[in-house]
Specification:
247 residues, Nucleotidyltransferase, domain 5, 6-stranded mixed sheet, 5-stranded mixed sheet, globular
């Protein structure tokens, strides 16, 4: 079954059709840069452009960087606050002008689903923590392949702000941190998560995972840590898988 996957992020909206039997993109993804904090109107325009680009008329899955209950957005830390209370599935369906099914979920949960089905977490039956490092920090927890949704560990409080302000990939660039300093800071954060949830296996995704050799050596975690296999395509693939037939 082919499904259009859409990954809504702090810096861009990305989409591509996905073969849900293999987890492969059926075409090169389209990336639309966000101008400032993305608003519902801007998202609608981006979705419409992606749908036109791929001439899409079928089902759609989308991941959003916030807590999703059903199809309603409950938090929006790095995008416009206008999203809070929005029915994301209805917004996307209207923008796409489709009567096909639209399913939505947290973006890190989507990335985790891709990694657990076809990537670094496939066949694992123990507890797995997936972290996505980008504009913010997304997190997803799995046990025996089953998702516990909306963990949002990137928003643990630290000195009056969310911890992601210190450990996201964007923080390294904004604060001009060396790989060593940022890696040690990230390692401290992950060890805190190990105290809270004690994962048996950790997967780190986001674009920065392609450069994992720069910082993995500084993490010093109890659980094994591996880079995500899908890199920046994980959110697209996972959103499509979530919208596909149940496994």
């Amino acid at each position: 079954m082919n499904i259009l996957g859409i990954d809504i992020g702090g810096s861009a909206v990305k989409g591509a059709p996905v073969d849900t039997k293999t987890g492969k993109l059926l075409a090169e993804r389209l990336r639309i840069e966000a101008k400032g904090k993305l608003t519902p109107a801007q998202l609608s325009a981006a979705v419409a452009e992606i749908v036109r680009h791929f001439r899409w008329r079928g089902p759609i899955g989308a991941g959003f960087p916030g807590v999703i209950h059903g199809s309603t957005i409950r938090t929006s830390a790095n995008l416009s606050k206008r999203f809070i209370g929005c029915d994301l599935a209805a917004l996307i369906a209207k923008a796409a002008k489709t009567r096909g099914a639209v399913r939505v979920l947290n973006d890190a949960d989507a990335a985790g689903i891709a990694e657990m089905r076809f990537g670094a977490g496939r066949k694992r039956k123990d507890s797995v923590l997936v972290l996505t490092l980008g504009t913010g920090v997304g997190s997803a927890m799995f046990f025996n392949g089953l998702l516990f949704p909306n963990t949002e560990f990137g928003h643990l409080p630290c000195n009056g702000h969310s911890i992601e302000k210190d450990v996201a990939a964007s923080a390294r660039k904004l604060q001009n941190l060396s790989w060593h300093k940022w890696g040690c800071r990230l390692g401290d954060y992950i060890r805190t998560l190990e105290t809270l949830v004690a994962p048996a296996f950790i997967i780190i995704g986001g674009g920065v995972s392609a450069r994992h050799e720069k910082f993995f050596k500084y993490l010093k975690t109890r659980a094994p840590v591996v880079p995500a296999e899908f890199l920046n395509e994980a959110g697209i693939v996972g959103a499509a898988l979530y919208a596909g037939p149940a496994k």
